[in-house]
């Protein structure tokens, strides 16, 4: 299964492509789309859409895994993240690629074994799982890879269960 992980953000949107199945993962690509904070919001969103479209065409993922927006006290930050998330959803839909969401806790648990892991622990485990020579930077890139790994592992396991269960998943 090929998964494009998207760690949505308007200033920095992490992207990571992983080929994987339960217990196995191989990095195909990693990067960050950056938009200038002084540009018009519509211009930034259009640029993000163009870049995501290029990744979808170039890497042909089976699914796009997006981090579910986490609402905290910083409403402005949540809104720009939600805008970037909407662009990821729209772009994947336009390319006919299914979208799945994972919470930060799910992703941390999948790659580290603990839903309360710190960012540094996630980056360390992503580096080990993918057998990378050095950690992906910035953290948005590592988070995107972690999302892709999480879905490759969990999604392939869910598909195996569905195949064994008459009529699909219960």
Automatic annotation (TrEMBL):
EC number(s) recorded for this UniProt protein: 3.1.21.10
Q: Where is the active site?
A: 7, 67, 140
Give the signal peptide as a residue range, or say none if absent. none
Tell me if DNA damage is a UniProt keyword of this record.
Answer: yes
The prosthetic group or cofactor this protein requires is: Mg(2+)
- Spell out the reaction equation it catalyses: Endonucleolytic cleavage at a junction such as a reciprocal single-stranded crossover between two homologous DNA duplexes (Holliday junction)
Amino-acid positions noted as binding Mg(2+) 2 in the UniProt annotation, renumbered to this chain:
67
Q: Does the keyword Magnesium apply?
A: yes
Q: Where does Mg(2+) 1 bind?
A: 7, 140
Family matches, as InterPro entries: RNaseH-like_sf, RNaseH_sf, X-over_junc_endoDNase_Mg_BS, X-over_junc_endoDNase_RuvC
Q: Where is the protein found, in the record's own terms?
A: Cytoplasm
Q: Look at the named UniProt entry and state the broad enzyme category this protein falls under.
A: hydrolase
Chief subcellular site? cytoplasm
Could you give the cofactor binding note from the entry?
Binds 2 Mg(2+) ion per subunit.
**Which keywords has UniProt assigned to this entry?**
Cytoplasm, DNA damage, DNA recombination, DNA repair, DNA-binding, Endonuclease, Hydrolase, Magnesium, Metal-binding, Nuclease
Domain of life, per UniProt, equals Bacteria
For this protein, the record's HAMAP family field holds: RuvC
Q: What does this protein do?
A: The RuvA-RuvB-RuvC complex processes Holliday junction (HJ) DNA during genetic recombination and DNA repair. Endonuclease that resolves HJ intermediates. Cleaves cruciform DNA by making single-stranded nicks across the HJ at symmetrical positions within the homologous arms, yielding a 5'-phosphate and a 3'-hydroxyl group; requires a central core of homology in the junction. The consensus cleavage sequence is 5'-(A/T)TT(C/G)-3'. Cleavage occurs on the 3'-side of the TT dinucleotide at the point of strand exchange.
Q: How does it assemble?
A: Homodimer which binds Holliday junction (HJ) DNA. The HJ becomes 2-fold symmetrical on binding to RuvC with unstacked arms; it has a different conformation from HJ DNA in complex with RuvA. In the full resolvosome a probable DNA-RuvA(4)-RuvB(12)-RuvC(2) complex forms which resolves the HJ.
Task: Tell me its family.
Answer: Belongs to the RuvC family.
What is this protein's name? Answer: Crossover junction endodeoxyribonuclease RuvC
């Amino acid at each position: 299964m090929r998964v494009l992980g998207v760690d949505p953000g308007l200033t920095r949107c992490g992207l990571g492509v992983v080929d994987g199945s339960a217990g196995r993962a191989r990095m195909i690509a990693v990067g960050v789309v950056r938009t200038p904070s002084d540009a018009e919001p519509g211009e930034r969103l259009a640029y993000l859409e163009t870049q995501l479209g290029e990744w979808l065409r170039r890497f042909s993922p089976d699914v796009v895994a997006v981090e579910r927006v986490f609402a905290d006290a910083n409403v402005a930050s949540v809104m720009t993240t939600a805008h970037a998330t909407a662009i990821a959803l729209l772009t994947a839909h336009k390319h006919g690629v299914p979208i799945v969401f994972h919470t930060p806790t799910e992703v941390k648990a999948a790659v580290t074994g603990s839903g309360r892991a710190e960012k540094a622990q996630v980056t360390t485990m992503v580096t080990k799982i993918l057998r990378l020579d050095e950690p992906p930077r910035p953290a948005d890139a590592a988070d995107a890879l972690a999302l892709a790994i999480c879905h490759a592992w969990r999604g392939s396991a869910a598909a195996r269960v569905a195949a064994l269960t008459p009529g699909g998943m219960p």
